[in-house]
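Q: Got a minute? One more chain.
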Amino acid sequence: VLAFFLSSSPTSLRATMRRFRFQNRQQRKPKLSTAKLHLRSLFGRQWSQMGHSKKRKLSQEELETWAESLNALLLSQTGVSVFGAFLRSEFSEENLQFYLACEQYRNSSNNFSLQRRAKDICATYIQAGAPREVNLDSKTRDLTIQLLQAPSHASLSQAQKRIYSLLDTDCYPRFLQSEVYLSLLRDAD
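A: Always. Here it is, folded:
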């Protein structure tokens, strides 16, 4: 073996070492669970970038907590990520994004931040033809736009309640029956 290294050119030696390191890395890679493989196949690299720890295994208890209520799901950062990925696959992620933007808005600490966020939320989600327009009835939409002219922490409350209701009665039950959630439940410890 030593004779091989001494007789080899530096270029072939580097190539051999690279191959050895690559093979060694491949052997050390952990196998992905079927749930993670399914999520990756549905959402590509986005699943790896959703804010959850790749090494963290979801517990049966945590997954069952998500099934208690939409609110319980929204209290879990990982739950929000998985639910968001599910909604993305159904092309209705804007509802969750709007709900979370409203939460940030309600927790804004200063008036400047409140005004800036009000303008952004209105332009992104509420105005007719907005890039991520949410499904609000015209009465709620008009009232919300009017309230956002002089923003307060409660300006988005009515619209947020409507979207929460839509998520709770429509999207959330479908999520609990989805292959994404069921496969995570099967693979939990």
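A: The radius of gyration is 24 Å.
Q: Perfect, thanks.
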